[in-house]
Amino acid sequence: MLPLLRRLRPGPLAALGPAGSPGPGPGPFPGPRPAWGPRLVPARGRKTRHDPPAKSKASRLKVPPPVDPEELLVVLERYRLHRLVLSALRAEFKAEVVQRKREATLCREDLAEQAEEHRRLMAWNEAENAQQRLRREERIRKEEEEQKRQKLQAAENQARKLEAFLKEKEQEVLRLQEEAKSFITPENLDARIEECLDNPRNYNFAIDKDGRIVKRTVLS
Q1: Closest by Cα among 15, 131, 99 to 139
Q2: 23, 32 Cβ separation under 8 angstroms
Q3: What is the bridge-based pairing of β-strands 205-207 and 213-216?
Q4: What pLDDT does 33 receive?
Q5: Under a CB-based contact definition with an 8 Å cutoff, are residues 40 and 12 in contact?
Q6: How far apart are CA 50 and CA 8, in angstroms?
Q7: CA atoms within 13 A on the CB side of 99
Q8: How many CB atoms lie within 10 A of CB 41?
Q9: Closest by alpha carbon to 5, among 20, 17, 26, 18?
Q10: pTM tops 0.70, yes or no
Q11: Each residue's pLDDT tens digit in the chain (220 positions)?
C-alpha cells in the first residue's frame, strides 16, 4: 500500500480527515467523502497518468497509423454532409417550435375574441329561434283555423246532402202514394176488369227512331 501512496499527488490527501478518515471535500457536493477517489485507484499494478513510463518502453515513439488521402477525403466529405443534415434538421425543428409558440400565443390572444364572437352568435341564434317560434305558432294557429273551417264546411255540406236526400225520399214516398191509388187491389179487381173490357187498347204497333207510331194493327 505504501508504494501506491507514494505515487499519488498530495492534492487528494488534503481531503482526508485525521488519521486518514474521510472528510468533507471541495466541490458542488460537500459532505463526507470516501478515503479514495478517481485518483486513488485501489488496484494493484495500475499506474496513474503522472507516473513515468516503464524503462522497457521509454524509447518507444508513438507513430500514428498511416491514413489514406482518398479515404480521408471521403470521410471528411461524409462528415460535412452529416453536419449539413444535422444543421438542417435543427433549423427545421427550431422553426417548428417557433411556429408552435407563435400559434399558442395567437390562440391565447384570440380566446377573448372567440368568446365574444361565440356570445354574439349565441344571442343571434336565440333571436332567430324566437322569431322562428313566433312564425311557427302563427302558422299552427292558421292551420287549426283552416281545419276548423273545413270541418264546419264539411258538416254543412253533409247536412245539406242529408236534407236533399230526405226531400228526395219524401217526394218519392209521395209519388208512390199517388201511384198506389191506381194499383189493382182485391177490392177494385172487378171494377178494373170491367174498365179494361170497356176500353180495349192495342199495343201491337211499330215506332220510328223518334218514338212516333208509324204502323198499328186493327183490333178484331
Answers
A1: 131
A2: yes
A3: antiparallel
A4: 52
A5: yes
A6: 9
A7: 6
A8: 13
A9: 20
A10: no
A11: 444 444 444 444 444 444 444 444 444 445 555 545 555 555 567 788 888 888 888 888 888 889 899 999 999 999 999 999 999 999 999 999 999 988 888 878 778 788 888 999 999 999 999 999 999 999 999 999 999 999 999 999 999 999 999 999 999 999 988 888 888 888 888 888 888 888 888 888 888 888 888 888 877 6
Place of cell 178484331: 220
DSSP string across the chain: -HHHHHHS-STGGGGB-GGG-B-B-SSSS-SB--S--TTS---TTPPPTTSPPPGGGTT----PPP--HHHHHHHHHHHHHHHHHHHHHHHHHHHHHHHHHHHHHHHHHHHHHHHHHHHHHHHHHHHHHHHHHHHHHHHHHHHHHHHHHHHHHHHHHHHHHHHHHHHHHHHHHHHHHHHHTTS--SSSHHHHHHHHHHS-----EEE-TTS-EEEEPPP-
User: Which residue bears the cell 449539413?
Assistant: 84
Q: Residue 62 corresponds to which amino acid?
A: K
Cell of 71: 479515404
160: cell is 245539406
